[in-house]
Amino acid sequence: MTKRNVKARRYGFTLIELLVVIAIIALLIGILLPALAKARRQAKFMQCGTQLRSVHQSMYTYAESNRERYPYPTKNDEWKEWSEETVGESNHQWNSTGNIMSILLYNKFFEPHMAVDPSEMNATITADANYDYNPDSSKTDDKWDRSFEAGNIEGDGSNPGDISNVSYFMMMLTGNRLKTEWSSSSMNGNYVVLSDRGPKDGKRENPHRICYLLHGTQKLWSGNLVMNDNSVARFTERTSIPTAMEWSRQEDPNFVPDGIYFTNESGQNTPDNIFKGDSAGRGGLEGMDIMLGFFTRQLDDSQNPYAKYDPQLQED
Question: What contacts 181, CB < 8 A, 6 or more positions away?
Answer without folding.
Answer: 171, 188, 191, 193, 228
